[in-house]
Amino acid sequence: MRRYIRALILCMVFAVFSALYVYSKLFYADLSVGGGGGRNVLQRAAAAPNPRDSGHGSRRGPDKKGPADQHWYNRYIMRKAEGHAGVVGGAVPEQMHLAVVTCGQRLEETLTMLKSAVMFSIKPLRLHIFADDQLHASFIRVLESWPGSLRPRFSYSVYPITFPRRNAGEWKKLFKLCASQRLFLPLILKELDSLVYVDSDILFLQPVDALWSLLAHFNDTQLAAMAPEHEEPRIAWYNRFARHPYYGRTGVNSGVMLMNVTRIRATYFRNDMTSVGLRWEELLMPLLQKYKLNITWGDQDLLNIIFHHNPECLLEIPCHWNYRPDHCIYGSNCVSAEEEGVFVLHGNRGVYHDLKQPAFRAVYDAIRQYSFGEDPVGSLLMPLEEELLKTTSTYCSKSHVLFTKRLSHSLANVNRDPNKGPPHGG
User: Fold this and answer.
1) Residue 236 to residues 77, 233, 394, Cα–Cα distance (Å)
2) Residues 235, 330: contact at Cβ < 8 Å?
3) From the DSSP assignment, how many helices (H) and strands (E) are in the chain?
4) What does the alpha-carbon distance between residue 426 and residue 421 come to, in Å, rounded to a whole number?
5) Element (H, E) at 255
6) Cross-strand pairs, 252
7) Cα distance between residue 254 and residue 179, in whole Å
8) Domains of the chain (ranges, CATH numbers)
9) Which tens digits make up the pLDDT trace of 13-69?
10) What are 252-276's pLDDT values in tens digits?
């Protein structure tokens, strides 16, 4: 009898020490994911999934979070700029979150977008950069080379491109390389409440703060904001050619997307595949499987399908938040830009890199070539205005004053001391 008791005691002791060992491994794995580290420390999460985040199996009940392939979104690489952003009087000001996805030959384009975001922003920015592994070192080198005076304005994390293991190749190649990564940001950036997602070919001509402030305009059901794909139905694409449901009259463009990711993760979305609502992570793959032969614009089409069935979830914002060649190529058709100027310029169709729309390229080149610390009026605005006067061969060029209307006001933020608050009237 005593031998059985001793054996039982030994088993219990072994079980306790095993549990403590597993707990310590999970604890330090969590630290390696979330820790700040120094400027030159590369941090990777442990390969094992975190049970707090991913559940305990491939099948999930209605109250558990995470896709069937549970642990794919727990792996990421994080680098932080040294120091804390914008600490004034011992208090940490609100931080805005900006996410971008870039693959292939878009390094310079993405850095120019980030430059426009940082140089005009008022509140500190947290940059979330999802990129091919071979681009990570270049992003870090350039961002670390920016002047120390900019350091209070921004911090950053660089992440690998990651998709659910099942169908990862299909997701990565959907429409443009890696573009569909944006669909999974709510599942990857689980610590965030809200973020702004933009394509790499975006340029901010107005502080990101203005876009971020639209979160306060969300009602109780809205969880995202996007601008229409077109303003004029007669030249719109979705209402003429789409073979799938889409939002509103002309669909929405996903190049600029403001997201309350907390609400996205918590919502059960209506759909045309089942009579019950589905969580975001449950919805994406069935949608792709159902419509992949009928969609042209990849993940943007999937977003249009989702918000077609859940229109109350979307705040439709004016076209000056996502101004593209479509708004001027056949004549000006963005009324809000005519009234207030262009807030966010979207150089889709590759117009930053060819001569088809010289006005778009002129703005891109002006911001790309500007060096931090120089007089923004003399080194950016005035040369840009001179260049725009030469580009009168297209309808977009004839609307060039719309491109500088907001930019001329935003330049007051470029060399602002972040510790002194926003400029007067800013």
Assistant:
1) 40, 5, 20
2) yes
3) 18, 11
4) 9
5) strand 252-260
6) 228
7) 10
8) 77-83+93-321 (3.90.550.10), 329-336+349-415 (no CATH)
9) 666 555 554 344 333 333 333 333 333 323 332 223 333 333 333 333 333 333 344
10) 999 999 999 999 999 999 999 999 9
